[in-house]
Amino acid sequence: MAQKWYCHVGGKQYGPLTAQQLKQLAAAGKLRPKDGVRRETDKKWTPAAQVKGLFAESPAPANKTATAETTAKKATPDKPKSGRPASDGDELPPLAPLESDAASLPRAKPLSAAGDDPTATGDDDDEFQLKPLEPLPGPSATASTGVRPVGTAAARPMPATTTPAPLPAAAAGSQLADDGLNYFRVMATAATGAALGFAALCLAKVPILPILAGGLGLLFAIRAFAMSKSDRNVIGLCLVASVLSLVGGCWGLMKTIDAADPIKALQYAFGLAAPETPKGTLRAGEELGELDSVTVRLRDMAFRRVPGVANSKLYFVMGVTLENESASEAVTYQSWSIAEQGAVLRDARGKAYEIIHDGRIDGQQTRTTIEPGGRAGDVLVFQAPAGLPDKLFLKLPGQAVGSTKEVVFEILREDIAIRTTGE
Questions:
Q1: How much is the pLDDT for 179?
Q2: What CA–CA distance (Å, rounded) separates 317 from 362?
């Protein structure tokens, strides 16, 4: 392979060049003897004058005699061609201007940076050789053409920059876990959805709020699932949040539909408002309720054990007496414990308490007929309110005795007895 050369001219480095191109630069005067040159494999620069065969050497005179004769001939004037001797008065004809030889000389190609001449063969590596090199500090000028500065490693052509191959993608299940901060955010989003779903489930018996909490919990679960990148922990937490949110929200929706006034029921649930005392409210134990021909009286109101059920916990128990005032028609009574529109017990905050029907309870009716002028009794059992409320409201719809009316009794704290022993 042909040896390549580099030269340092005018503070700039050029190359790689063939030997032929280097000669052309020297012949054209572009490369001067004091300029630095080096082979491709060399690291140090050397003056171009030390490269054997790069510059044409001037031939020395044969001898002093020949030189003197030549000088004499030049000094002797030529005789005129006419044969007449020239006199001192004669003038020589003017000399014709000599044409310059510059036009006939081969013109060197312009100095080009770091390129091969396409006409150069590159087979003349041995045409000239370097003389023994002398240490020469590299020029301080830095090449501005992108070539490596002198004095460093050999200025070989820089390899083309290649784009590094992309790293193999991590496993799908571990991408999110590798990013700690992002993993924490996604898990926090999923956990928030689960907390909202649990809150909706706890508030299921309250109108409106479970719907809002369940809807927000479902949105957080969907958001976390979209950011999960197939992480199993996040997906599992999203499923839990979705189930809790859906169950709590649906339960709250049913409660909202059942409530006559959901806003008031919500206020009652949090104690923001006390239920208004309905018109016609009767004082329990003192006043009678009228349902067409049937009159109703409350008796024996107490927190006590259920009559007939041994070792039962405390319930709110009351007796009801019904009297048929009609002189000719019998009345069928279906117990308010099992009637489609049964008895409803609420406290001052609007909280309702569950009514209980059990065949073991002494005195509790299912269905009975009250003859004209006759009486019937029943026992109503409710879950005991927490603490001892100031007042309770008992609503008895008239449907249980075939009436379209209803009666509401107000039960004050002093009307309620507390019996922790016996029946």
A1: 63
A2: 12
Pairing of strands 352-353, 355-356: unpaired
Q: What is the pLDDT of residue 198?
A: 92
Asked if 186 and 324 sit in the same domain, the reply is no
Contact between 397 and 292 under an 8 Å Cβ cutoff? The reply is no
In what side-by-side order are the strands of the sheet with 5-9?
Answer: 12-17, 5-9, 36-39, 46-47
The pLDDT of residue 34 = 87
Beta bridge partners of 11: none
Please, are residues 307 and 363 in contact by the beta-carbon 8 Å criterion?
Answer: yes
- Using left for φ > 0, alpha for ψ between -120 and 50, and beta otherwise, residue 363 falls in left
CB atoms within 10 A of CB 187: 19
Rounded to 5 degrees, what are φ and ψ at 106? -70, 135
In a domain? residue 121: yes
- DSSP β-bridge partners for residue 12: 9
Whether the CB-CB separation of 313 and 323 falls below 8 Å is answered with no
Give the per-residue pLDDT at 166: 52
Spatial neighbors of 264 by CB under 8 A, at least 6 apart, are 273, 275, 350
**Backbone phi, then psi, for 124, in 5-degree steps?**
-110, 45
Residue type for 316, please? F
Q: Which two tokens stand for residue 110?
A: 């312009």
- The SS3 assignment for 153 reads coil
Same domain, 242 and 363: no
pLDDT attached to residue 292:
92
Query: Are 341 and 249 members of one domain?
Result: no
**The predicted structure's pLDDT at residue 257:** 84
CA 300, CA 386: separation in Å to the nearest integer? 20
**Cα–Cα distance, 395 to 405 (Å, whole number):** 11
- Number of folded domains that form the chain: 3
| Closest-CA residue to 147 (of 309, 17, 324) | 17
Q: Which domain holds residue 212?
A: 175-267
The answer to whether the beta carbons of residues 294 and 324 sit under 8 Å apart is yes
Please state whether the peptide bond connecting residue 210 to the residue before it is cis, i.e. omega within 30 degrees of 0.
no
Distances (CA, A) of 307 to 116, 302, 323, 421: 117, 12, 23, 11
For residue 315, list its beta bridge partners. 304, 383
Judge whether 322 and 358 are in contact, CB under 8 Å. no
* Stretches in the chain below the pLDDT threshold 70: 1, 57-179, 260, 271, 273-278, 311, 420-423
- Give the model confidence (pLDDT) of 350-389 as tens digits: 788 999 888 888 889 899 999 999 999 999 999 888 777 8
Strand 391-397 and strand 406-412: the pairing is antiparallel
